[in-house]
Amino acid sequence: MTDIPRQYGIADDPTQAFESLRQEISLLQTAIQGLTAAREKIPDYSPTLAAISRQLAAMSEGIARLEQAPAVKLTPSMMVQQLAKAAADARADDKRQLDEARADLHKVIGRMDGLVVRARSTDHQRRRELWMMLGAFLFGILLWSILPGFVARSLPESWHVPQWMAARTLGTEQITPDDQVVDNTQTPEKKD
Description:
- The structure is a single chain.
- By secondary structure, the chain is mostly helical.
- Helix content is about 80%, strand content about 0%.
- The protein has helices spanning about 5, 15-40, 45-70, 70-75, 75-155, 160-170, and strands at about 175, 180.
- The protein has a two-stranded antiparallel sheet with strand order 1-2.
- A hairpin with a 5-residue loop joins strand 1 and strand 2 (about 180).
- The protein is rod-shaped, with a radius of gyration of 69 Å.
């Protein structure tokens, strides 16, 4: 048994063993003090870590909002379908607006056509009135040239109206059957 301590380099002397143990404990104490001093020299990272934590939380919320966005959930085929639907809706809206504009244009054209027709009918009416006035004037001239002769022939023959009219028209004297000469160029004198 005495051979075991010598194999492992353990001294037989207890004083020497305690001295060796004291040195090891002293070394261990120095190491622990060094670690404590080193720990005290480490800077405090808690404010920086808190700021990083807040930024990570904000980023997590942003990512969560992005994940909830409808565009992220769309597959390319779904996106194509929605784009096609939006394009069809836009074309339908454009077609509706074009139809409304076309209807308004037709209304305006109809109103303008009505104004043109009204103006033409007014112009036609004025021309017709002018022709009627001209016809009435010519008819009046014709009537005035025929009617006095007709009236003169319808009066009694003893009045000699046709002869009187002929003499007055020619500016000559009228000869009556009684052989009296009557001057038709002068106005008759008034008898008092």
